[in-house]
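Long-time lurker, finally posting.

We've been working with Rhodopsin family protein (Penicillium bovifimosum) and I want a structural starting point before designing mutants. I don't trust myself to interpret raw outputs, so I'm hoping someone here can both generate the structure tokens and explain anything notable. Sequence follows.
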Amino acid sequence: MAFCITFGTHEFSSQLEGYEHVRAYCYNCQHWNGHCITRWPFFTVCFIPLIPLSTHKYKEVQCYTCRYTQDLRDRPDITPETRPPAGGQYGIQPPPQAHGGFQQQQQYQPPPQAQGGLGYK
Ligand SMILES: [Zn+2]
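Top reply, 14 upvotes:
Generated this for you. Predicted structure of Rhodopsin family protein:
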């Protein structure tokens, strides 16, 4: 009589409530692509989750760029308001300099006056 029972684990993971829009900094790859998730591993029999392996869900921040995962308890800097800083890595590019720049300005520039008030008499 052959009985094939498959044991394994299955993880339920979902977006962490209240942190859906968080983009956290990844210390591994230096990208602002950390997303907060919850994980709840289950012990499965025949692919049916039976026993939770943890009494509570893990709260983690997972980087979508490099798959680096960190426990949220190790990242006290992450709050529901965590966002990439404006003007940071993905910030606004400085406006391009006006091209050309070869227009000759026929403007007489007087030589700069001696600075410091060290005028001789
Ligand atoms: Zn990363």
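Before you design anything, note these points.
Residues 26, 28-29, 31, 63, 65-66, 68 surround zinc ion (CB under 6 Å).
The radius of gyration is 29 Å.
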